[in-house]
Amino acid sequence: MLWNFAALAAAGYCLARSIIDLRARRYGWGSAGLLSAAVFLAAPVQTHTVTVDLPVAEL
After folding, report:
1. If you average pLDDT over every residue of the chain, what do you get?
2. I need a surface site. Which of 7, 16, 22, 55 has the fewest CB within 10 A?
3. Whole-model pTM above 0.85?
4. Torsions phi, psi for 46 (to 5 deg)
């Protein structure tokens, strides 16, 4: 759970920094920040799965 919040904070920082860089016309750094934010947000999140086996209905 802590790593999820850390990744979200890092993505937020990258996104904010890329907006600042794009407004300052530093397009290389701005696009790198957007790409980094996209990588953080697209990374798979580890979850706990629960499987439920239901009995088969007999007709």
Report:
1. 90
2. 55
3. no
4. -75, 130
| Joined tokens for residue 18 | 């890329």
Q: What share of the chain is helix, strand, coil (3-state, %, to 5)?
A: 65, 0, 35
Q: Which of 21, 14, 19, 11 is nearest to 41 (CA)?
A: 11
The answer to whether the beta carbons of residues 15 and 33 sit under 8 Å apart is yes
Helix 2-23 with 27-42: angle, nearest 10 deg: 160
In total, the chain counts a number of residues equal to: 59
